[in-house]
User: Fold this.
Amino acid sequence: DAKTTQPTSMDCAEGRAANLPCNHSTISGNEYVYWYRQIHSQGPQYIIHGLKNNETNEMASLIITEDRKSSTLILPHATLRDTAVYYCIVRVWGGGADGLTFGKGTHLIIQP
Amino acid sequence: DVKVTQSSRYLVKRTGEKVFLECVQDMDHENMFWYRQDPGLGLRLIYFSYDVKMKEKGDIPEGYSVSREKKERFSLILESASTNQTSMYLCASSGTRDEQFFGPGTRLTVL
Assistant:
């Protein structure tokens, strides 16, 4: 699986959009970008994933650059409950049967 | 609402004890996973199962075994607990959509 680089921490004001970057310059053509988050004392939570097109769901948007070497997770209207560690993972589509490897992630702190 | 439940949130055991961690999912998922999470080391895969009675070793299976007798239940067993197995244990399940649903975790302390 390709290596990812994320900032250690970020702040964002409540109500503003939170933009979390992820670099994955060694990504292969068949690798997807996945985002999970982990709120303190809880298990990780799946957010979104994509291959090369931008994706949006009820939680967030995922913007992948044309060369696929980086991506941005966007939380459009951050709330205090979005304070969490956000993990960017790059891996081949596993069909549900492969384990995940989490790096250190970005600690996003939403400020009131 | 989809759910993965784990038998305990907190557990304290003594060195040498046999420890069972239970995980149940209600989503009819084929795949289930056990991870441990330690500060500075991230999430590491211990074992996973893609079908009843099937199991596969993950990255750190030593000192652990698993059991999957029913589709909804996946158990992690520490045959003889040791202090270096003090950790947060997370169970997850997934179907074919490749998104994993995690339980709340069990914080195990081995004294």
